[in-house]
Amino acid sequence: MREQIEGSQAVARAVGACRPQVIAAYPISPQTHIVEELSDLVRVGRLESEYLMVESEFGALSACIGSSAAGSRTYTATSSQGLLFMAEALFNASGLGLPIVMTVANRAIGAPINIWNDQSDSMAMRDSGWIQLYARSNQEAADVHVQAFKLAEELSLPVMVCMDGFVLTHAFEPVDVPDEVTVDAFLPPFQPRQLLHPDDPVTIGAMVGPEAFTEVKYLMHLTQRAALDAVPRIAGEFREAFGRESGGLVQRYRTGDADTVVVALGSVLGTAEEVADAMRDDGYAVGVLGIGCFRPWPDSEVRAVLANARRVVVLERAFSVGAGGIVGKDVRDALRGTDSVVYDVVAGLGGRPITGASLRRLLDDVAADRLDPTELHFLDLRTDVVSQELARGGAR
Amino acid sequence: MFEIRIHGRGGQGVVTAAELLSVAAFEEGRHAQAFPTFGSERMGAPVTSFCRIDDRPIRRREPVTHPDALVVQDPTLLHQIAVFEGFKEDGYLLVNTSRSFAELGIEEVTAGLQHACAVPATDLAREHLGKPLPNAALLGGLAALTGIVSIESVEAAIRGRFAGDTATRNASAARAAYDAVQGVVHA
């Protein structure tokens, strides 16, 4: 049943419907409302789960590692510095093949301190071995969490569901929250691939030397690449069970005959589609490609959609300082050998809104060949502030 | 699409007001989205919230820069922040005050507006709630001024959010402001 609800509450209830047996989390804006709602569900008895109060994010994910290894369906959530504080444990969770599901309510990373949205946090953990899924709306965020538990447990790999902090987590909009009955039919009980149990002792996470470490990592890579088949299959099963489209590797919008395609992740996709419609009305063949699954990287799907586009504009809410676009590099890699020109545009850092008007100006510049594809661009960069700082010797 | 921007201070229920408005519109079978500006959630600090209402799914998520309706929960903000920025001449302005626009020093702005209305929402809140929380009353006033949602939907949204006496008192504050604004608009 559709209801008008806050994004965080919708996600918490969708996670609750998946019946996680252990939840360990430490509050941080803008993730807080999610874990508050879950702790409430446990407190009032609507969700039977062990809710662990921990002293930090490092403690949260460490507790999750223990509970997942002991065979419990396990969930956590964090943002920003909280995710960075988990960094060491993140690599252990993926290396040990533990199917933990985590919400990342995307937020900028300091310094300077900033609590607002961008995707620098999850992008910084790109190579942690976790599957990374990005939600475009609160409906998709709720749905993708249900899919994430199935994906994680089938592959025995941890999954991050990334949703733009505040922009989604704090927005009220209509959501059909997946109900427990349908989720129960969709998501079988957790069958751990290996179990840490005193009756049948095993060692997990033992030291591996140079003779086999490469092989372990190679197998990790193969397992994560298996998600390229599992993600669309599970999205299909979800459609069968719930009657709506959510998730998947990529999402195409008017890309079939597009001369220019905007590539983006997360909540900006709606604005991008609106701008694409407006440009189409003015005679420009613009489409939008949403990346739903960023890790593993769906190179074949990206290539299949973009290979015929003359121009590809990659819009990203993070970048690699000193190098350039993060998603942009992967897109260029997928398009190797084609004639497509790729533009890297950093936008929406630290909570700056990505407006339809700014996107329109950007795409007008692209259409008129006013944008240099060899440069890294920053949407709505305040050049007056930059010049002033440069004049004062602010950058050396 | 109809876009509303609400200006107030932390503690006045600015965010809740936008959420309740979106619920009222949703209850009428429309698409609605509500969200606040973030980061200044301190008691007394200026807070802005937004609500969009449309007959189609709402895709954009940027702050409302050209509101069709502007609600000022706290008139002390009128000369402190750019409350009227991007406001349309044919837009709807609702100010929480018991004073005149001239006394507030915004007559120059309101003279050019077709739909400007003052309602003493804080006084009504004191009377009905016993607390100076003007947000529910202002939603009733907004329903009367714009017709974007019915007063019944506003009351239903309030009853859905709050329990017992709090719900009843807020709903009656909304109804009182609705009646007051109806009286002015249709006088």
Keyword list:
heterodimer, A: 396 residues, alpha/beta, 7-stranded mixed beta sheet, 15 strands, B: 187 residues, 6-stranded mixed beta sheet, 7 helices, 6 strands
Description:
With 396 residues, chain A is an alpha/beta fold. Chain A is 41% helix and 18% strand. The termini of chain A are far apart. Chain B has seven helices and six strands; from the N terminus they run E-H-E-E-E-E-H-H-E-H-H-H-H. Chain B has helices at 14-27, 101-104, 107-111, 121-129, 135-146, 151-161, 164-185; strands at 2-9, 31-36, 46-54, 69-72, 92-96, 115-119. A six-stranded mixed sheet of chain B has the order 2-3-1-4-5-6. In chain B, helix 4 packs across helix 5 (135-146) and helix 4 runs antiparallel to helix 7. Chain B is globular. The two termini of chain B are 28 Å apart. Classes of the chains: A alpha/beta (396), B alpha/beta (187).
